[in-house]
Amino acid sequence: MFGLVAKKELADEEAMVRFQNGDARAFDLLLHRHSTGVLRFIIKMIGSSGRLQRAPTQAEDLLQEVFIKVIENKEKYDSSQKFTAWLYTLTRNCCIDHLRTENHRHHDSLDASLSRDEINGAVVLDIIKSGERNQEEAIIDKEIQRLLDSGIEELREEFREVFLLREIEGLSLKEIADITDTNLSTVKSRLRYAYQNLREVFIRAGYFGERQRVKEV
Amino acid sequence: MNCERFEELLIDFMDNEIEPSERELVKKHLAACPRCYRRLEEYQEIRRIFNEETIPQPSPQVLATLSKRARQEVAKDKSTFWKRWFYSPILVPVLSSALALSIWVYYGQKNISYSPGETIYSRDAMAKKVPIAQQPNIPVSGNKVLDKIGSEKHAILSKPLERGSNAPPSRGNILEGIESKPGSVLSSKPYSIPSRAAGKQETIQEKSDTSLRVTPGEGLVVEKDLKVTGKTSEEMASARLEDKSMNEPVSIPPVKTEVEALQREELAEGQFEEQAEQEIREDKEKSKEAKLYAYRGSAYNEQLNLALKQQNEGNCEASIKTNEELLKISPPPPDSVKEKAYLSLAGCYEQKGDLENAISNYNNLQVVAPVQTTFAKVKIEALRQKITQLKARELVPSDTEKGQKSK
Fold first, then answer.
1. Interacting residues of B51 by C-beta distance below 8 A, sequence separation 6+
2. Does A86 score more than 90 pLDDT?
3. Does some domain include residue A125?
4. ipTM entry
5. pLDDT classification of A16: cutoffs 50, 70, 90
6. Structural domain count, chain A
7. Chain A residues whose beta carbon lies within 8 Å of the beta carbon of residue B5
8. Letter string b/e over residues A9-33, b meaning 16 or more CB atoms within 10 A of that residue's CB
């Protein structure tokens, strides 16, 4: 990418300091490292893949907006702060602004979404029951992914962002607390609720129960 | 550990961010509780599904746009940095101050030696920084004699030593001449010493075979021709004491040594100072006289103007009195003032009818102003005729008087 080889030994924070001092290649390095994770976070935050397919440029527009903020606000970055924490703070703020302005956030109740999840889960169950795993393995995985995406989409915004920050970037609970401007116990409880909700989605779709049954068989 | 507590620690247990003691408790609970064990598996399954999904990649166009934008921002920052410095309000005063300081340090320290304890900021050190070549051009007091003395002094001090001159060499050169190699000193041609004791010098040279030589630019070197006599200097000194002719009082020729030159210089400096002081005193006296004269001149003119004004107003008595006071002032006024005063007096007396005094003043006018002699004589003649006529009138009574007498 751009003839640039990512230097693993160069920490994000050091690269950002170099960029502050006028080294544009350091920015390329940071872009190469984090553009994928940021884009994934944006996609999960603003909607399902189905919506992204309907508006494929929205996530990339937000990605561009995030890194432009990095460029324009580079002087505000404190090198004592972890770069990813700062980067995902900008990303989260962009996503929240987008959701508020575009009203992409759906306030459908969890029960309302369950009907769709049940449909999706029924499809998955049918495939699993049919025993045609070898032939339909790709389809099953895709449907399970869609089930997870829908579950993530139905999470409350506070739970979702904590879950995504933890699973995508592997940030510590303390860093997530700093990004979301909450305390550590709140982050822990939100993360637990996120997992519980996702588990319920899979249970209601019949995935975990049937999977367990299949294992036992 | 109950299941509720396990729920709280489950996430930390998955991420391996749990205390070792709690970890053991969680493991024990998992071994004893199949429900919690299944939940842990479900959570790990959710994580696995999430991490196995296809990760979307940003388009190269977006990345290229961002990279270009970053380079533009960096270039803008660099230009802004230099512009900010170039247009900085403190840049000009800082640079000009630094330039002035560097010039002062460079030229102020150049070729100036400071005495011990003297700093570059002391008054004497600052005085040294005045260019020497400009000093004679500086008018000290406007006195020509002082300037002349200064220029002579400067010429004596700055005159280079010439062959055969009596000017003293420098101390370094004297030492250099003594300690220099024989080839440079002894081979140089001896100087002839024009002095009152030239004859005696010849005698000394004949008897002691000692030559008195002056090396050019290296001062006097009294040497004995050791090559001829083959004696040491100590032997020659003892021989000189034994020699009667050497014991006779010999008038030492006025050899120009450095000490003598310094004494002469000091003497000259003393003379210069005395002359300068005298000139300054004379200047002061002259300036005092000039001021006094100017003051008096203005006083004479004021008195004279007052008298003329009174005469024009017809107040002859007052004008006469003013003029007489003017002429009595000590020191007496100059002839130009006296001339006008006598003219005024003569005119006033003439108007008053005191012709004798008018004639007297015209006579005085001739004395102080020979140019006015012709005019004064004409006036005096006219006045005398007038006096004669008046006397004749007094002696011969008029017809009216004769008629009155006859009646």
1. A167
2. yes
3. yes
4. 0.77
5. very high
6. 2
7. none
8. eeebbebbbbbbeebbbbbbbbbbb
